[in-house]
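Summary for the steering committee. One of the milestones for this cycle was to obtain a three-dimensional model of the protein with FE3-S4 cluster bound, which we needed before selecting residues for the alanine scan. The sequence and ligand used are listed below.
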Amino acid sequence: QETTPSAQSDVASRTPPYPKLLKRLQEVRRVLGSSRQLTLAEKILYSHLESPEESLLTNTQNGTTIRGVANLKLKPDRVAMQDASAQMALLQFMSCGLPTTAVPASIHCDHMIVGEKGADTDLPASIEGNKEVFDFLESAAKKYGIEFWPPGAGIIHQNVLENYSAPGLMMLGTDSHTPNAGGLGAIAIGVGGADAVDALVDAPWELKAPKILGVRLEGELNGWASPKDVILTLAGQLTVRGGTGFIIEYFGPGVESLSCTGMATICNMGAEVGATTSLFPFSPGHVPYLKATHRGSIASAAAGIASSPYQQNLLRSDPEAEYDKVITIDLSTLEPHINGPFTPDFSTPLSKFSEVVESKEWPKTLGAGLIGSCTNSSYQDMTRAEDLVKQASAAGLSPKADFFITPGSEQIRATLERDETLSTFSSAGGVVLANACGPCIGQWKRTDGVPKGESNAILTSYNRNFPARNDGNRATMNFLASPEIVTAMSYAGSTTFNPMTDSLPTPSGELFRFSPPKGFELPSRGFLEGNPAFLPSKGVADPTVEVVVSPTSDRLALLEPFAPFQRSELKGLQVLYKVKGQCTTDTISAAGPWLKYKGHLPNISENTLIGAVNAETGETNVAYDVDGSQSSIPELAKKWKAQGKEWLVVAENNYGEGSAREHAALQPRYLGGRIILAKSFARIHETNLKKQGVVPLTFANESDYDLIKACDEVETRGLLNTLESGGKGEVELIVKSRDGKETVVKTKHTLSVDQCSFILAGSALNLLAIKAREQK
Ligand code: F3S
C-alpha cells in the first residue's frame, strides 16, 4: 500500500481530544443525573460544552427540557473554510489582532474553479483569474497557522472526510454541506464566517439545542439502490424545511452494511432538508476507511471507546435514548429515486419517473449527465459508474448526453487514474473536470449551445438543484440522482429511460440492458497521494508573513469596525424599503457573479436586497426617496449613508431563509441599516444580524405590518434599556408617517445577554477584539 508520510505525521493532531471529551461526558452525566439517557448527537454535542452546568441547567427547568430550549455554548475542535467564504472569515479574524487561531483550521480552494474543457486547461485559467484571492488566502493561512489546500487539491468536504473528520469530533465549516463529515461520526455544522471566527478566537459558539430526528435503517442495499437514494427518499418525506431545528441521527441494523463514504453522502444532503447536521454512530464501515486514509490509530481509539459500557461510550447512543421523531427506511426494498427539478424534495421513484416526465411535459432529451462533486465522488461511487461504462462500451455504446466527471479530491483522482477508472470514462467520451466544485456552484461554462431561457434537462449526482445553480440558466431543469443512475441515463440521452427495465439498441442491432452496477468500497492497492503540489501546507503560524491586501483591489478590502451603539435610543431612522413576500439570503445578497466580491464589503454591498419586491408598488429593486425620486435599493441606501441617515427594513415571514450567508447581515449594516422589523426570521439569519450589530425585531401584532410605509420615520423606545439589561425589556417603535401621524408599534425580540453585548459593542467582532486586546 502506498504510504503518505505527511498524513501519518499529522494523525496525532487530527485525533479528537478523546480523554478530554470523555471527562466532559462524565460531567454532563453528573449535571443531568446518571439515569438520563442520551442520543449520540447529544453526547458529542454536550461533551463540547464550555460549561455543561451553565448551558444545560439555565432556562431548562433544571435540565428536564434541553432540546429546543437550552442555549448551548460550544467549543468546537476544528474549523474548515472554503475559498469563497474564507475571505470574509479571515478578514474578520484578522481584525481581532490575534497571532494564531485557537483551534486547528484549514482552507480549501474549490469554489472558484471553472468547469469547462477539463482539468488541464480549466485549473490554470481559474488560478490566474483568482490569483489575488488565492494569494491572500495562502498568506493569511501561513501567518496564522492554518492548513492551506491549494486550488486543485479538492473539494472541502472530501478533503475533510479523508483527513480531518473522525468519530466524536465537533467541527464548524463555512459551507452548508459541512455535515458530510457526519458520515464518519462527527458533529459537523455549516456556519457563516462570523461564527467560524468564534471558534478561531476561542470564544464559545452558541447554538439552540437541536431536537433529534432518529432515522432507523433496516436491511441492506442491493442492486441499483445506493446511499444517495436513502437521502433522496428522505428529502421527499421531510421536504426542504422538515429537518429545521433537528439533528438527524441514523441508527439501526442497516447502518452496519453501509460504507463510510456512503454514510457521508447521506449526511451531506441532510443540508437539503434544513437539518442542523446529520451523523452516524461509529460503524464497521469506518474502520477500513480510517485505515485506508492512514488513520488506523484513530480507528483503534474509537473502537476502544465504542466498546465501553454505555455510560462511558461517547460514540454510540444510550440504549434507551429517545428521539423526538423516528422515521424508518428499509434499505432492502429501497428504489433509486430522482429528485427535482428546481427543488431537492420533489422526489420520484425511478419506476414512476418517465410517467411524471410525460405528465408534466418535462423535456425528454437529457442534455448532460454530471457525476462526482462533494456529494458523490468516492471510490465506490466512481467504480460502480465505471462498471456501467464498461458494460456499455463492450456493447459498442457511447453516452448520448454530454458526460462530465468531477473527482472530489486529488487523492481520489490520482487513485482512479492509476486504477484506469478515469481512462475508462475518457475513452467513452467523458470529460474529467478539475478536483473542485465547478458545475455544482454555477462555474460550468456549458458549450452545447443551449440558449439561456430555453427549457432543457440535465441530471447530476450533486446535492442542490435550485434554478440556475449549475449553468446559470434558470430554465435548465436539473434533476438529482445517484452517480449510477446519472451514468446509465446518459447513455440513453433520455429522461424517460429506466436502466433497470429498459434496453438500448446497439450498433450491431441487438438490445442491450445494463446489469446492476458493481464497484469497490476501497481501492485494493490503497489510495495514492497524487500530485505533491496539491498537498496542504503545515498549520504552523509564521508571524513574519505579510498578508497583502491592495488598497486598490476590487476583490478584497480590509474591514473597518462598525461604530459602537451610542448610549441612547435610535432616533431619525427611516424605512428604506418595505419588502413583500419571500426574502431569502439570496434576495438580500445575491450569489452568481457576485461571488467574486465576497472579500470586498463595499463592492458586494452593491447587490443589497436587489431581489426584494416593493410591498407598495410590486416592483423588484425599485426604491423611492422622501422626495419621490426613484433608484435601486443599494443606490438609495448608499445615498442615505452619505447623508448620515440610518435606516430600517420592514419585511414579512421567515426573513433571511436559505443559507448561513453572513453577507446578508453585513451588507445592510455596512450601508447604515440598524433594525430589521419582520413578521418572523429564519434562525441563522436572525443570529447573523445580531452578530453584526443589527437589531432584529418582530411585530407583536403581525397586522401592524400594514401600518408602516417606506420613508416613514422611526424612533425606538425601550431599546437602550433592553440592551443594557441583557435582553430584559420590551421595545416599541414610534412610527411617524409623512403626513405627521404617529403610531406606536409593539415588537418582540430574542436578544440574549451575549447578543445584547454584541450590539452594544457595535458587532460580535468588536467585542472579540476588545477581549483579545485585554488578554494581550
Ligand atoms: Fe462545492 Fe457543490 Fe459541494 S459547491 S462544496 S461541490 S455542494
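Key point for the committee: The mean pLDDT is 94.
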